């Protein structure tokens, strides 16, 4: 199992410009914060869909790597995304991920996305990763 | 809001042959049990996919009607289903549903399905219902 | 590659009670007909959701086995289903499947479902199968 | 019905920096090209997931607006995305969209994404838009 410190260090080296912070990091729940900036916003004052989808995908990746280690070749095979409410513009967004399944070749994660400070989810995602066979 | 007793009575009159029992019935969680019988099984000793998908859809329907009343015309518009593990043959299956969104014209529910007695979900679903406009 | 005759024979021996007929059977398109009977119908005169979902899943299975042979252990891992229109009650339903991907461990198929005689699809599905590693 | 010229003009004024070109524009098929640039790429030489997901969403939006006119309030409610193959880095990506359903309050579109010059799709999406009631 990867520790929170190892994950943070790895993330920094792999995605130096990413505006993510790993907040929760346990078997039951991974929470990743995305620091929302101007360029993430859409006209009308809301966080863009791609920003949320990328965060959801990242949260599943973090939850998966926590269990299997830094397997660079794990790739997303599907992402099912539901937009539930308009996120507010002046708040970070948080993704909470639970792994529903961790099989030998497939992992499935479920993600709820929140505007920081709000209880009702703004989006929900279910994503699947393909895990390469061990050599 | 519909009471548990009203829901059970309505269910019995609408779906007299259904083998469902409403166990939990709160805002945060709806649990519906399906009493598994021989005809629900697949060769190899497992509960069939359609049995699980129908239960998931039903659980969202129950969660939705609890909030909006017995609106017969609410219809499923999408069901996204992930099969996670083989359910065991000799146990009932339970669906736990949370409504992620209840809008004026759309509701989104999330469902985890379990074999009775097991903690790991055997399937997960996200479904959408269209709610007819009020006349 | 499996021939149409081999597929029909295999289907008959594996699913003797199934009311399916394989109509089209080429690399580009698989069409499976489901002979609708009384028990497939829902009040209001329409084909039930589970009947359509089962047919969609079957059509992907047929398209997949056509390519990889009779691998009994290929299992559905996800099914994403959209209900588009009410199918009519007095017509068979037809599922047309295209394989979007056939990888070593994953296959993805897309299915449109029609009421026989109608041009507008009544439902659409995307499903994923996990293919067991070759021994 | 919106003409191709009207759509192109509207797009330019609404999304001046977008690198999209509308190629096909008929009832049966909408094709939108995304001119891939350095910033769309991922390490390993492939087009990023968010770039493809945004293009898929845009193609459905174009197909929908073509039918209903420039209704600014149509919003994506779900996007189901399957990653099929690695797109190549040195080619544009093209999204071909078909509207599966155009109802009063919901539209469903299906999209295949290709690397320009390749026949096998690199991704597939099904998305749903909510259409605001007419005032």
Determine the fraction of residues in helical runs of chain A and give it as a percent range: 10-25%
What is the CATH H-level superfamily of chain A? Hotdog Thioesterase
Shape of chain A: globular
* CATH structural architecture of chain A: Roll
Explain the overall architecture:
The structure is a homotetramer of 135-residue chains. Chain A is an alpha+beta fold and 135 residues long. Chain A has a single domain (4-130), classed as Thiol Ester Dehydrase, Chain A (Roll), CATH 3.10.129.10. Chain A has two helices and eight strands, in the order αββββαββββ. The mean pLDDT of chain A is 93. The A-D interface holds A 49-50, 53-54, 57, 75-83 and D 49-50, 53-54, 57, 75-83. Strand 5 of chain B pairs antiparallel with strand 5 of chain C, so a sheet runs across the interface.
